[in-house]
Amino acid sequence: MNDILNAEQATEILKRGFSRRALGRFATMITAGAALPFYNESAMAQLSMVKDIPADAVKINANENPLGPCPEAAEAIYSVVKKGGRYEYDITFNMAKTLAAIEGVKPEYVQPYAGSSEPLHTTVMAFASPTRSFVQGDPGYEAGGRAAKFVGAKVIAVPLTEDHAHDVKAMVAADSNAGVIYICNPNNPTGTLTKRSDIEWALANKPKGSILLLDEAYLHFSDATPTTDLVAQDKEIIVLRTFSKLFGMAGLRAGAAIGRPDLLAKMKSYSAGALPITGMVGADASLKVKTLVAERRKNMRAIRAETFDFLAKHNVKFIPSDSNCFMIDTKGPARQYMEAMAKEKVYVGRNWPSMPTWSRITVGTADEMKKFQAATKKVLA
Length: 381
Fold this sequence. Notes:
By secondary structure, the protein is α/β, with parallel strands linked by helices. It has 14 helices and eleven strands.
């Protein structure tokens, strides 16, 4: 373990309320890299991981982008494959520089990752502990809470407001000794926005020593203002970005954490390994296509609007969304709706315990959403 955790790291972990037995668990997690122990828990099978889906089925269950990577990214990925025998660290450094320039921060404020799940987990590992809780909205993306439970941190789930925004005042008041306050904006699963003013209030009033973690995985689908300017002001905030959603690279794994260098350094202690050069070069190429975000956002919104018109016409209650996912009221246990839709070869998203009759739907292609509409009309008749 001494080769994995140095004396300084071990002392810091003990200071945060972990036991000496926990040191071994942290060493295991660090050497595991992306295959962290809580990644493979049995509950994952109940989420978006579905086996044996027919080739002609509609998959609108996992917030994926059916468009895939843009042509420029695909060409860059194809061209770099022949370099796969080397780590090619410069490709990762170049992606960080490109993203930093776009976001108005220095390159050292950007730490690339293979997607945004790993930095979400490592933020929890770095700033939450048995003595410092993890606070999130409910319903919300569960991965951070799972990581918190794994390291022995208390998880506090605060109900969303009536309009499905994060209740930042309740979140800040939830624990005076919180370690991480997590806001996904737009939120997963509801696709709803939390106002910039509320985010700024949370940042100004959060417990001393805590981190505000802003997950902006779905930012580009919305009109929300990025919060990376707060990072540039050296605030205690970490912003997560991914190329899995609008950029269509879920299977290629590229993302980043954007934050103050000293905060990123604490997270980096729990990471290991080089990053996939295919994901990094694809991300870099995508960022350089200046029209990509606007074009894809417009395309998704047109399909979403047509779908909302259908739902309203057929009296299916839904939550208006600013993202590529939304929730519908299935008028009964959502699990039954999911199973009935699967028989129609349309795979929809899961429900959350706090909303047992609501199912999350991903916006697919126009053709896929027509099939979703036909199946929903039949199943909910």
